[in-house]
Amino acid sequence: RDNHLSLNVGETKTVKAYRAWEIINNHLNHIIMPDFHFNIISGDDVVSISPYENQPKTNGGGNWCKLTAIGEGTAVIEVTYDAIEISGGSYDGFYGASDEARTGLFVVTVGENTPNVNFGIDCKTSAGSTTYSKENAKPFDSELDTLYFFGDSGELKLSPSSVDGSIIELAVSHDKGETYIAVDSTNGVYTAPIVSGNNIIRVTTDNGIAYKIVRGDRTELFVKN
């Protein structure tokens, strides 16, 4: 749910990429996949990416990979997919490439302690519900949930806690982990600025660092009588 993977040096992990909305040929109940790309934004001395040798046959490519931890540190990896045109199936047509604001992003830490952090973010509606209320709240899923806002940026309120220690700092990155902005708190509540695309929330405790990806996107309001 957080898009943060913790590994030890020498450890490997098999990773698979998906489209959030899968293209399905109903005649064969077959998922149609575009070509995917894994790109190490930072930390190419921390992790390496190689093809997954036992990848099942698919009509796309690159959606499976093997992630290997090669050195201590932190890496940020982006996942994108190409456009695809489909004919002769249930959903013929052209499907665009991944949007810049909705690319996949995850953080990998190697050889570092990852504390058990509850970021204190709730989605106030659950699947199948249109009611905005705490009763329908569910944890914020980094892959599927988006914070929408009017204007150039929005605000996200977080109340992080950790069973592994005290919260020392909360910071947010708008440039895929290149720089971080520390966020002040009021009575344990942090208000983080969120921009379109992927935002990395970093929580530092006295027992390590935890990360969470929060995707933001601008929306418009139209009123018609």
What report would you give on this structure?
0% of the residues lie in helices and 50% in strands. By secondary structure, the protein is mainly β. The strands form 8 sheets. It has a 5-stranded mixed sheet with strand order 15-23-22-18-19, with no helix packed on it.
Strand and helix layout:
Layout: E1 4-7, E2 12-16, E3 23-25, E4 30-32, E5 36-42, E6 47-51, E7 64-69, E8 73-81, E9 84-86, E10 93-95, E11 104-110, E12 117-118, E13 122-123, E14 138-139, E15 146-149, E16 153-158, E17 161-162, E18 167-173, E19 181-183, E20 185-186, E21 189-195, E22 197-205, E23 208-218
Parallel strand pairs: 1-11, 15-23
Antiparallel strand pairs: 2-7, 3-4, 5-8, 6-7, 8-11, 9-10, 12-17, 13-14, 16-21, 18-19, 18-22, 20-21, 22-23
Write out key terms for the chains shown.
23 strands, five-stranded mixed beta sheet, four-stranded mixed beta sheet, single chain, mainly beta, 225 residues
What would you say about this model in short?
It contains no helices and 23 strands.
Percentage of residues assigned to helices? under 10%
Secondary structure tally, helices: 0
Class derived from helix and strand content: mainly beta
Order of the strands making up the biggest sheet: 15-23-22-18-19
Query: How would you spell out the order of helices and strands?
Result: EEEEEEEEEEEEEEEEEEEEEEE
Identify low-pLDDT runs. none
- End-to-end Cα distance, whole Å, is 40 Å
Mean pLDDT: 88
Beta content comes to over 45%
State the shape. globular
Largest sheet: 5 strands, mixed
